[in-house]
Write a structure and sequence with these properties.
33% of the residues lie in helices and 15% in strands. It is built from three helices and five strands; from the N terminus they run H-E-E-E-H-E-H-E.
Length: 142
Amino acid sequence: MKYKPRTEDFESLAGVNIIPVIDVSLVLLIILLATSPILNLPGFEVKLPKAVTAESKEKNISVSLSLKGEIAVNEATVNETTLIPALQKELKDKPDFLVIIRADQGVAYGMVEKVMDLAKQAGAQRIAIATQQEQEKVVKAE
């Protein structure tokens, strides 16, 4: 004889138990609140590295930016509106030349970015930012 349970002995499950979901959500919220100050790290000093690079032997075009907002392509002084035509003239028949942006360390990053965008619009395919050359330290064996 087979056992057949009566249906009136069991209650139907009409809902979902959300207490474990709430517990997990609160734990994740606490973890997020505890780690968020670590992700934003404001208020500490950042020292940018000095570059030790090899001198470039290839031809290049220099774009200089001064603190006063002056812009020069190689030796010619230009402004923002004449920068693109001046770079196009220099890049004519030699689009693979390296465009080096030489910005004073006090120039705002936004201005450097703007000049990079203008150089891209002029057709520059290779753009670099100049750094102050640091002499390599020679370690003497004694």
